[in-house]
Structure formats: structure tokens, C-alpha cells
Design a protein that fits this description.
Strand content: over 45%
Oligomer: single chain
Largest sheet: 6 strands, antiparallel
Order of helices and strands: EEEEEEEEEEE
Strand order of the largest sheet: 6-3-2-1-7-8
Number of strands: 11
Radius of gyration: 18 Å
Shape: elongated
Number of helices: 0
Structural class: mainly beta
Helix content: under 10%
């Protein structure tokens, strides 16, 4: 299953790159990219302005491709599966300690 079910506010673990193994919260998401809090930081030179009177360098987060992240529960990456419950609603679930736990329901058409 691909990572199309990762949403804003989910906790994810980074699978590849310089920040491999770091865990962070999804701040924003586009179709193929996610912005993860505290991950993939880069420094950008900024000019003097009212918000930044001295100018200089500012650390900012860059987006990470969806293929390089996985949903994390308790700091460990988990694989999500889809099934229909008794009410015929689709739900995302994962297995932890031999038990299946529901992550959330999937709305129709999303």
C-alpha cells in the first residue's frame, strides 16, 4: 500500500536521506510531498526586512517525498492496511503486538 493516506497531523518516520530514522509531525501536504516538522532543515539567506532587521540565515524545513516517509505509532513505523468494517465503511488499520488496531476511517472518494 502506498502512503496516500498520510494526512496533516499524522506522526511519520523518515525512511531515506540525511534524516533517516527521525520522527516528526506532518505540517502540510501536497499531492506527492509532505512537510515534516523538524526534518530536512536547510539554511536560507534572507535580506534585511521589518521581520528580520539584521538579515542573515534562517533555518527552514523543506518537503519530503511521500515515498520516503511511513506512518509512525509510538516512534515505530507501521504498515497501514484497508478493510471494510461491519457498517461497510473503509477503515485503515495496523497490526501491533499481534492485535489489529484501527487508525481511522477512510471517507468515500478520498
Amino acid at each position: 500500500m502506498n502512503n496516500k493516506h498520510i494526512r496533516k497531523g499524522d506522526e511519520v518516520i523518515i525512511l531515506a536521506g540525511n534524516d533517516k530514522g527521525k520522527v516528526g509531525k506532518v505540517v502540510a501536504r501536497s499531492k506527492q510531498l509532505v512537510l515534516v516538522e523538524g526534518v530536512n532543515l536547510c539554511k536560507k539567506a534572507v535580506r534585511k526586512s521589518e521581520q528580520n532587521p539584521k538579515g542573515g540565515f534562517v533555518s527552514m524545513e523543506k518537503p519530503v517525498h511521500l515515498s520516503n516517509v511511513r506512518l509512525a505509532i509510538g516512534g515505530k513505523g507501521v504498515k497501514l492496511h484497508v478493510r471494510q468494517n461491519k457498517k461497510q465503511e473503509k477503515e485503515l488499520f495496523y497490526t501491533q503486538d499481534g492485535k489489529e488496531k484501527v487508525h481511522r476511517l477512510v471517507k468515500a472518494g478520498k
